[in-house]
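writing this on my phone so excuse typos. first protein, seq and then structure
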Amino acid sequence: MKKKKAFTLIELLVVIAIIALLLAILMPSLKKVKQIARDVVCRSNLKQWSLIWAMYTNEHDGKFPYSTRGWPRGEWVTALRNEWQTEGDIIRCPSATKDATGAYGNVNTSYDMGTTSGTTIQENCSYGMNCWAYSKPDRLPAPTTHANKYWRTINAARGANNIPVFMDSKWRGAVPGYESGLDLMTPTAEVDSLVHYEYGMGHFAMPRHGKGAKAGINVMFMDLSARHVRIKQLWTLKWHREFNTSGYTNNGGTWPAWMDKYENP
């Protein structure tokens, strides 16, 4: 009987080398595919949130919620709780890992929803609200002198596709604006968690999605659409009724060094 020829050591090493080469070629592509998949899932989450917001505002004469629990930046958490609790993981972007100990999140981690008025909500979340959308300024984060800036209803104005409502965030919500005390522009570094809740745009200015100069976050707008927004583009969105959308540097601001690598609006 004729014996079968076995692989020689050299042939085996060649096969191993070919496999290693293919893996080296494919790994970056697989990593990119995973990033794209996480981005798609995040936008899908925000589209589900758009349905929740549509149902809520339809049931409340078009009005957004307002703070009744002493938790002004996170009133949406309790106002919409019955809806989001039935939808599983839509409260967390797949690019933000769970961090049960984090009062604040960062680029790669979610935050702990927290406790208010004797109610503990332990779920980890990675989305937050533009609190300028709320309906009762006298019970909200910004001073009452800014009451005229709030959107209040989902039918507030033209240009709804540029009015951010709900998005990737390091905490429950913020009131971004150029006024002193309302917007301490960004954290000191791109991966920092928030030090103080009043760091307005710092809640959202981070490279959670996308790569390189085009990195940014996913945003749900008042017309209920959702799209990717680059970091520096955040300052061109219509956060409140009087927000200057010409960009941060056009309003006298200076980008911190860590933002130099990101594409201008």
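second protein below, same order as before
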Amino acid sequence: MSIRKPFSRWLGALGAVPALACNACGQGTINYVLPDTPISFGPVPGFEYRLVDFNSDGKADFAFDSILGISTKVVPQQQHRILVQPEPPPDLGGYVQPLLKGTSISIDLAQPGLLWNDGSGPVGGATLSACAAPFGCIGPWIGLTAYSGIEIELNGQKHYGWMQIAHFQFSNGGALVDWAYETRPGVPILAGAVPEPSARTLLLSGVVYFLCAHGRKRKLKADMIL
């Protein structure tokens, strides 16, 4: 009896771990990158064309263009796209659409008033902000930290992801904080979603926790006997 009872508890603990892990099984497919420091862009310290390689394959995926100094644009590279809010006619182009954390990003996110922009066309990309003295700055991203919806093409298949962008209040400057994309083609991703532990990691953690707890319990009993 004294052997069977702890063993049954051990099996129960292990059995509970896969149940806890089931919600994480589909989350281990997210490729998430947090740079050591945010990737800055904008007119300070200088006009620039900042290229970002999302998956370290040696090819730029997006560019932050503030060469002209009066605006900052996000320019998709290759055949990637970014979600934008079109400017009303007769203006051309559109603004990068800010998204709240938890927004589901997929092909269906484009709805009346929103479009996927591939960087082609006369304006070349989507505008984050535009500033001109003495009028100030315009755009939905001014002074905001939010998520942008992105669509990247890998091996001929479309993947959905997000970029977290922090924008300064009174300039065209800001920083790319982090980014992620779903490695399964066509699968939606939530803005701000990062990989959760795999079922195997949770299982091993459960085993370690049980063994440690069981060891502490045995030590406590021994101390009480002494």
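The helical segments are 4-21, 199-225. thats all i got for now
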